[in-house]
Amino acid sequence: MIRLLFFLYLSVLLTQLGCETDRSDNVGQSADTAEESSPDADTTSGDSQSDVGQGGNNNGGSPNTAWSEPLTDFADLSDLKTGYDPSQWYPTFLELLNRRYPTGRFIVESLSNSEQEAKQWLQAVGNIDTFAGLVQGANTTVHEMNHGLSFQEGIATNFDTYAYVLREDLTYIVPRITTFNRKEILPYLTGPLGKGSNGYYFYIEDTIASHDFFSVLDEFNAYIHSSFTGYGLHDEAAPGLKTSDRNGTLTFMLYTQYYLLHARENHPNVYTAILADPDIKELVGSLWKRAVFILDVTKDIPALEINAGPLETLMLSEELQQEIAPFLD
Q1: What 8-state DSSP symbol labels residue 26?
Q2: Number of domains into which the chain is organized
Q3: What pTM did the predictor assign?
Q4: Residue from 305, 296, 287 nearest 46 by CA
Q5: What is the mean pLDDT of each run of 10 residues along the chain (329 residues)?
Q6: Helices marked H in 156-277
Q7: Which is nearest to 82 in space by CA: 92, 72, 74?
Q8: Domain range holding 262?
Q9: Which of 45, 114, 122, 262 is most open to solvent, judged by the fewest CB atoms within 10 Å of its CB?
Q10: Rg of the chain (C-alpha set)
Q11: Is 62 helix (H, G, I), strand (E, B) or coil?
């Protein structure tokens, strides 16, 4: 029964707007062509502050957020590349992630039927025939298998709770209280968030009833993983290739801000319930801090964004910063 539900979930992912492999981090990639421990898990590593925030520091911190966690030291991959054997793609892929984004390996390995699921996503956006294909597909594979892992954990409680894996040592399992459909924030999506300007617009205009606040946070978490994976492998990207990892993270930061603004002004009972639950409040704050952290780390890597400046400017506006402030206590 669990596997049936899981494949139903994957079917939804694959059919929604021609499958999420058409996400903006895979659209317009070429420069030439244009989402077990309890919420009581140890979060101490997310509470210290550092003076560094430059890409390449392997024990990174950000002066803009009280968050710190180890980053890749960009371990050499030449042995994996020169000796690549397609028949050994799965252990090679795991080792690739282990060296460059260990949390990504944890996510991939933790999902049931890991090898089959990884193969599906790698072949959807990359390939397993070459090492370069693994690198190309790693971002989306970690992103999508993170969604699957959240779904897998939710089955255990009949979806009365929602699981968010931020790191191997940090998973939040929060109560899924009643919230409203995320499509209600559609009127706010103008300018750099508008339909003609932002490739993530489809997430909000869909009509799937289950897409509530927790689904926004699930995608937010997944795009943070995309940014971490992209950072860990950006030195291996093909020349001229650009992804929109930073765009995805910034967009879901904005969706979170607008959802909270809309809830506060139009669904006060929902807003109060979100803010009153200590686990949900801490989750939102941790996602936000981790997002700011990786955005700071990647700010000088142009290959990881496609004109993300207007999104960042909007996210940092005083009006919208006020919406997230109560979750950063």
Answers
A1: T
A2: 1
A3: 0.83
A4: 287
A5: 38 35 37 31 32 34 69 97 96 98 97 95 94 95 95 81 94 95 96 94 84 96 98 91 93 98 98 98 97 96 94 97 95
A6: 202-205, 213-233, 245-266, 268-276
A7: 92
A8: 2-327
A9: 45
A10: 19
A11: strand
